[in-house]
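Entry:
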Amino acid sequence: MRCLRTWQTSTNFPSVIDAAAAHRQCSHSGLAAGVRSWFTARASCCRTADAALPARAQPLFFRAHPNGQRAPHRLPAARLLSRSTLTLRKRMSVESGTQSSTYITGNEDRSPVLPRQLLPSRQHDHGPAPSAELVWPGKTSVRTGSLASVASSARAAWDLRGKLVRGEQAENLLIQGDASRALSELLSATAEQSLAGRVKLCYLDPPYNTGERFAHYADKADRAQWLTTLHDHLVLAREFLAPDGSLWLHLDDSEQHRARCVLDEVFGEDCFVATIVWQKRTTRENRKAFSSMHDYIHVYAPAGPKAWKKVRNGLPDEGAFSNPDNDPRGPWRSVPMNVQAGHATAGQIYTLVTPTGAQHDPPPGRCWTYTAERLAELNTQGRVYWPRGGNGKPRLKRFQNEVTGLAPFTVWTADEVGDTGSAKRALLADFPNRQVFDTPKPVGLLERIVGIATDPGDLVLDFYLGSGTTAVASQRLGRRWVGIETSARTIEEFALPRLCAAWEAFPNDGFAFARI
């Protein structure tokens, strides 16, 4: 097991990649190392002994930690479990898919952790151990709170081919190569070249492990290997996130439920923010038992949902505003002044009298938003609108300059952000003579994610870049981005041409291209 030393870093993002200088900085192997001006790979690695799980295939099982108390190593699933333990009784075998008994073990030896707090650097506290842990063959037993998976024993051989793709300086970077190696090298950079703790949004759209074969990749892997790769990538991604950043993991029904367990383990259960359901198709698939029309996007934030809400952006409020009474405070619209009575106080239930003398009680099951005293204050301030010539129930005047954005729903329809079909048609329009991706993501979907999670100038990371939609959306919205894609063909045929076109339309900052 490899470990990477935690480096103290500054907050400046890598600035300029000089094309000529990049061409001069060559290694003895002949590969240009121009990106070393961007990333100075200084990794200090150490190895620690760790007992590995048996190499033979084993079924998946859950390991529960009941209230931090040590329990017998293995308990039969038939045994009654307390409320604090995971009550799942059956699980699927990795290889055969048959049901068998679930093994519940006690809390392993774990070092104590401090209460969660926001830190100015990348040294996040990852909270208490998860209440349940998903275990699979080959998984390391080292707690993921460490940097066990963050390692690189050698410097990268970057090949920039001596040129900057667009712009006079590169604030954005496209990398072709293995994601694990590229991430490890990015983490090993120090000082002003480091990206650790600076990524505001990490969007991941990995293979779903559906068992299907597509034109551009095979979406079938051994489940244990798929989980191991996801786990290691999430551990790496966690080290890039800023304290107020967020990670969005996009999956379908094939593995999303297991991925939630891994996310809870890597980030902590208290870092879960929401699961978004995206309508990926509007046509019906009659060949299967149910026609699947949605994907899942799990959102996690190191700061936790309450703190992250303060920094995330709301959706635009596109409601109509007007100023029929020429209020000097500007356009406004009215909203009802009654709410559900479930948590009402006695002061919110009363009979109010309008300016014309009409009397109103709150609707059944509801109460007034404000007490009678507060309502009188708002009326004096000109914040209350009385419809029907003063006979109607009061409504609050909400001014346009007070609106800060709407909380996003957790269901996103195709009409709002697009679907797979619209994304595929857009790619075919740009590349009519090429076989495009079968399940591309629409730009509208990524623009919404980027818009919610970041502000202009923030850094976005996607290391399953594919055709480049995340980077395209980031470029269009004035965000900086780093994209990593394994397939050279995909970058050459799709990602690079799309990013060049996006830069021509939105020439904010230049970008460079590197290979490892």
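The first strand starts at residue 2 and ends at 4.
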